[in-house]
Design goal:
This protein has 380 residues and is α/β, with parallel strands linked by helices. It has 2 domains: 5-141 and 364-379, Rossmann fold, CATH 3.40.50.2000; 167-360, Rossmann fold, CATH 3.40.50. Helix content is 33%, strand content 21%. The chain has helices at residues 17-29, 50-62, 99-106, 116-126, 180-187, 208-218, 247-256, 271-278, 330-346, 349-360, 365-379; strands at 5-10, 34-39, 68-71, 85-88, 110-113, 135-137, 167-173, 194-201, 221-225, 228-231, 236-241, 259-262, 283-286, 300-303, 306-310, 324-328. Helix 8 (271-278) crosses helix 10 (349-360). 47% of the residues are buried.
């Protein structure tokens, strides 16, 4: 059987979420189809594997105008690609589309989304502009080779050695939506012992570190040297790390941690949550938005208390935007931290970790690529 042909448009760069999504799904698609890649912006040299270079060159020399084209980009930028059938794959966190997003998505031949939650948002926004069977859930994934479980790849060196246990880890951009402020407030209310390792960064805001330190001090944490902060009244520590792009180091951190904590307000997919699960580490996570596609109670503690609030972010949405996010309850997050600490003391986390690793392996990039091809073939 002849391999399908496909044109892909997106960011070949790993410093933004869209780029990570695009690169990983393209690498999986190379196994299934003859793919051309057109990069939005200059391709990042480190992201250009031999197969990626070939796909980029093929787009310049022999772009297939008769093949379907898929772009992975914000929903309001769907005009920036061509092809026989134009299919958009937006990733978003809002529960309501803007007028511009509706306009662009309604002029596509099909829309791919990460989750059932996202599909309902798109269908609710587009109304009759696109048939329901033209909006398909394909998901994203994670890479089990980069993030093997702690049982498949035991580590000789513990990156958390010397820190008080239990240790939990939070990996995310520093921004309001990711819930670090709620995590710091909750950690300051836990009796302890507990160590929170914050692998945080924000390439779009140079002041993120100062903001994090200010938030820690406001909740009673004092700097004790290097990356370490300790609460003045409790046996609770925070290790304030940055992120240097070393995914192997993050994988080792996930495998070493007792649990991960992700109190986000909304996620378009939540890749670090799935990577943490794939590492065999249970999670505390908000049971809302796209991660509901793969989160189940067996893998940790789900945050379900809180309230919907208008979307706002001082960096990304200073004037707000249509829609709402879910703001987790600090009270529930505090209880979840204490519950996981108790489970760690009683040896109860292993079963959750094994369930998390099994569940994560149902959501790989290979699966996402196969479902993408299946959707295009159904629409042909």
């Amino acid at each position: 059987m002849a391999r399908p042909r496909l044109n892909m448009f997106g960011s070949v760069a790993r410093d933004v979420g869209y780029g990570v999504h695009f690169i990983n799904i393209c690498e999986a698609l190379f196994e299934l189809a003859d793919v051309t890649v057109t990069s939005r912006g200059a391709p990042e040299a480190a992201a250009c594997t031999p197969r990626m270079k070939q796909a980029l060159a093929r787009a310049e020399a022999a772009f297939c105008y008769d093949a379907p084209s898929v772009t992975i980009c914000p929903a309001e930028q769907m005009q920036l690609f061509c092809g026989a059938h134009r299919v958009g794959f937006p990733v978003f966190e809002a529960d309501r589309l803007t007028d511009a997003e509706v306009w662009h998505l309604s002029h596509l031949d099909g829309v791919l989304v990460t989750s059932g939650w996202a599909r309902e948002v798109v269908l609710g926004g587009l109304g009759d502009a696109l048939a329901p069977d033209r909006v398909r859930v394909v998901g994203e994934g994670f890479d089990p080779d980069t993030f093997p479980s702690r049982w498949d790849a035991p580590d000789d060196d513990d990156p958390l050695a010397g820190l008080p246990r239990p240790c939990c880890v939070s990996v995310a951009k520093w921004e309001l939506r990711k819930g670090q402020l709620e995590l710091i407030r909750a950690a300051a209310r836990v009796e302890g012992p507990l160590t929170v390792v914050g692998r945080w960064h924000n390439p779009f805001s140079s002041g993120w570190l100062e903001q994090a330190v200010a938030a820690l001090r406001q909740e009673g944490f004092e700097h004790t040297g290097g990356e370490l902060f300790r609460h003045r009244d409790r046996e609770v520590h925070v290790v304030l790390q940055g992120f240097d792009g070393d995914h192997g180091a993050v994988a080792r951190l996930f495998r070493a941690a007792d649990f991960g904590v992700f109190p986000y307000r909304a996620e378009g997919w939540g890749l670090p949550v799935l990577e943490c699960m794939g590492s065999g580490t249970p999670v505390i996570a908000t049971d809302y938005s796209a991660p509901t596609e793969y989160l189940i109670d067996d893998v940790g503690c789900m945050l379900r208390m809180g309230q919907m609030d208008a979307i706002y972010d001082p960096v990304f949405f200073p004037a707000g935007r249509p829609g709402e996010w879910f703001v987790p309850s600090v009270v529930e997050l505090t209880a979840a931290l204490e519950c996981m600490c108790a489970e760690a003391a009683d040896g109860g986390l292993e079963a959750m970790g094994r369930a998390a690793a099994r569940r994560a392996r149902e959501f790989t990039w290979a699966r996402s690529a196969a479902r993408l091809i299946e959707a295009l073939e159904d629409w042909a």
